[in-house]
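Holo model, PRP. Inputs:
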Amino acid sequence: MNKKERQGILMDYITIALAKGRLAKKAMDMLEEIGITCEEMKDPDSRKLIFSNEELKLRFFLAKANDVPTYVEYGAADIGIVGKDTILEEGRKMYEVLDLKMGKCRMCVAGPESAAELLKHGELIRVATKYPGIAKDYFYNKKHQTVEIIKLNGSIELAPIVGLSEVIVDIVETGSTLKENGLVVLEEVCPLSARMVVNQVSMKMEHERITRLINDLKVVLASGPSR
Ligand code: PRP
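Output:
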């Protein structure tokens, strides 16, 4: 029981924003392991956007991955669960507090094997990606190579096949999309996984409850296999 609870003051809701899709399901499974459940979220036919656990004074909502950091920075969500790729791309002001060790994959430069030479010699090439911020940082700040970045919204692997770009910067998980399209990983940009992020004001105002949540998750992470 925290100070507010002891004093009988009504607890505020803590709002958690989850990136829609596979990650949200896995994150809810992990939260369930520390006793945080949300029954109404399990109804597959529901069109509701926001769910709550009245007993624990928690609210959950699902958002497009790219929007999760926005909700957290502005405090519309106290906590967010989202991939490191989105965190890097969005560059929002918030605390990244925990690596949830799930949804593990890598951000890579990929292309046909022949493109390796172009990377070696720092040529002016075209790079297609859903992550222009990450691609720019990698090529300009880490490799000091001037490139033309072309923003796409999906099926990035198509770009080098149809001649839109020489290489791509994209997520590689199993590697099967690259393989089936005759492409290879040329360079690794960084490893990725799901992270928990916290609004900077919420971290102060709800320090006790949020820290307890983080610590409980750390125990689960330390005991279980990586997912
Ligand atoms: C992601 C990514 C790759 C693929 C990698 O795409 O952009 O295309 O998964 O996974 P793999 O290494 O296991 O094959 P996603 O399915 O999210 O769709 P998108 O192409 O529309 O971005």
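The chain has two domains: 3-103+193-223, 105-190. Residues 105-190 form a domain with the D-Maltodextrin-Binding Protein; domain 2 fold (CATH 3.40.190.10).
Archived with the compound record.
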